[in-house]
Amino acid sequence: MQRDEVATHARIKDVAAVIMQCIEENGGRLVKSMGDGFLMEFGSVSSAISSGVSIQKKIAGQNVRLGNEDRVVLRIGLHVGDVIVDGDDIFGDGVIVASRLEGLAEPGSILMSQSAYGHLNGQITNQLVSMGNVELKNIDRPMAVWQWLPENSETVPADQHVSGVQHQSSKPSVAVLRFLNLSSNEGQEYLVRGICDDLQSSLSKSQLFRVVARNSSFSFDPNAVNPQQVGRALNARYIVQGSVRTAGQRIRVNATLVDTTLATEIWSDKFDGELEDVFDLQDQMTAALTAAIIPEITLAEIERTRKVRVGDLSAWDHYLRSVQLMQKMTVSSNREAIAHLQTVLDLDADFSSAWAMLSRCHVTAVYQLWGENEDEELQIAKNAARRAIETDPTNPLAYDAKAAVHVFCRQFPEAILSAQTALKLDPSLTSAYSSLASALAFTGQSKEALEICFQADHISPRDLDRSQRQMAIVIANFVGGNYETTKQECQRCILIKPNWFGVYTFLAASCAFLGEAEQSKAAISRLLEIIPQYTRTKHKERMWLQREIDRQKLLEGLEMAGLPK
């Protein structure tokens, strides 16, 4: 046997010994063991719960002394019910319910039915938390359940199985609960379930957080949800809950995002649609909900990290700090973001999204002329984008980072392909829409670029950072010859990113063509504040416009605006 197999076998024997000791101490019987599962029988609930608590505490005590790879975490289900005795074995509903509860239990916890809870007579009831009514597979009606968790427990997400601890990045977990069907027609339940299924699947595509498996999160009765209790049961920092109401051919979906640690509602909204095409409706609702929820969670997480001392920051926290710093668009914030990302990768070299963000940081530095060595900075960006894909080939942010590198290198067909790949993986990733729109705009495809930007604005009106998309709108209007609109869109872009030097070149040229000399000169003045001694010759070398007619038009406008040759 290999060393890992020997160690695993030895660890399982240790765990089995603990279980047998606790069973015997509490007058129980081991009915049978099934791989890594054990079926136990006790004469009373008091004995059963005492044994279960003792098992969990002793296993947790052993885990403290072990490395992450050697830890074993158990789930326990407890139920009082009728059984069928067949020799030394037992069968029946009592066994089935206990097994279903074990499957729903959080690792390290005990989940018990109401019938078991009723026999406790006050024993450890102060350590139990009501989880409300849950649905169990093949059980006719929802069942009230209670959960025991060890004090100060370090638990793992409910969608993980036994051994292992939470990933070092400490990404938050999100649970999508079943939405409440407020329609008088119970036949619409399939539509409610479909929206919840699709939303759960869509959020799972995001690399920014974990999504609790639906067999756990959908088990809670939407009529009786306590966010903090559900959050604790599922180890979910955020839950999404809501309702669906139909009237004729109209449908309204209300959704709420709750921070379970603070028991506060951080976002809510409603979405209306028509029931003409159910599948198309589900796609629209899912896209709208996903695009709204992801930025809100990111904003909430960024706000949370502001209260964390630097020395206590996890890899995930450092990553969030870099996201926030990148929005400031200054040399110092860029370098500070890179430092945070390097810390992330020191803690977790396989954090794909951190590699993707590192690539974007270096591409931005090259574009803004912040680096001492442009070739070296660009190579770092390329390598980071490659590593992002290598560490997680399913991460849409990785392909979006690659698209940004291709755009900078004027490899527009490759940029379009990478952005499209990102959007196939996550149709709600608005930064990928921006990369795609930029590539189209630079190649003179004005109408197509604007259509892409419109799609992104439609699905995500509250984007964390829409500056790249706004810049794509600027470029698309300029190459389309719409100088008045270009000027207006430049002004919107400046409100978002006042230090992005490229926007001032298009603003200056557009104002010059509109005969607004003072505004064009003011734009040149601001441009030279950002990059002193910038000239038309330097800009000619740094233009990303592919069509010669567009390049000449921009240079003509900059000459009219007064940018030195």
TrEMBL record:
GO cellular component: periplasmic space
Guanylate cyclase domain residues: 1-102
Pfam annotation, one family: Guanylate_cyc
Any single GO BP term: protein transport
Any one GO molecular-function label of the UniProt entry: adenylate cyclase activity
PANTHER family noted in UniProt: ADENYLATE CYCLASE, TERMINAL-DIFFERENTIATION SPECIFIC-RELATED, PH-SENSITIVE ADENYLATE CYCLASE RV1264
Protein name: TolB amino-terminal domain-containing protein
